[in-house]
Amino acid sequence: MIRDKETIKKDIVDQLYWDHRVDASDVKVDVDDDKVTLYGTVPSYFARNAAYIDAYAIYGVTKVVNNLKVQYPPVLKVPSDSDIESNIRNLLLWNESVDSTNINVSVKAGNITLKGTVDAYWKKLTAETVAGRASGVKDIKNELAVVPTDNIVDKAIAKDIVNAIDRHYSLDPEDIDVKVSSGKVTLSGTVENWYDYRSAMDIVDFTTGVIDINDQLVITPE
Hints:
The N and C termini lie close together (6 Å). Strands 4, 5, 6 and 7 form a four-stranded mixed sheet that branches. Strands 1-2-3 form a three-stranded mixed sheet. Strands 8-9-10 form a three-stranded mixed sheet. The radius of gyration is 19 Å and the shape is flat. By secondary structure, the protein is α/β, with parallel strands linked by helices. It is 35% helix and 29% strand. The protein contains six helices and ten strands. The model has no long low-confidence stretch (mean pLDDT 95). The chain folds into three domains: 5-70, Histidine-containing Protein, Chain: A, CATH 3.30.1340; 81-146, 2-Layer Sandwich (Histidine-containing Protein, Chain: A), CATH 3.30.1340.30; 154-219, Histidine-containing Protein, Chain: A (2-Layer Sandwich).
């Protein structure tokens, strides 16, 4: 079913205003065919990510560009860069899933850069999520390198991913192509919606030996 852009836009706007995590009063939505661009401001980094997911949840949307800027409310006392850095270091230290020993955090005007190494791709993503919980964060550049502790051959990585896709109730391995080169996974093919897309990406994120992802999956609603 093809949906016109005004219907898609209305559904996205309604979704954003429904979501209590997002103050959508300063969010603008542009729809070009099935591609959506969000712009304007939101009151936190958490709200920025929530708005992105909300837009993808709407039927007919195949791509979302998140140009939202974080603008903290004037009544909120925003921590200094040094305090933000300290808070992120503590959050990482308290998180049991990620060893932050080799993670370096730098902050400039609320913009975070993560550098260093972790031993799994999902830990790279987790470190970014944890950092995003700190007050005062405006944006995050995740430059963490993934250095697995075990040497896992590409063929084994690809096999693990394909098998996991095959086990998933709503994914068809015939629709998704998996290629692995030196631990970097390229996913291509099609899925029907955002949830299937996220399921496929999660499978790659959590597979042992993956160091990076080249995402070429396309959402093609039926």
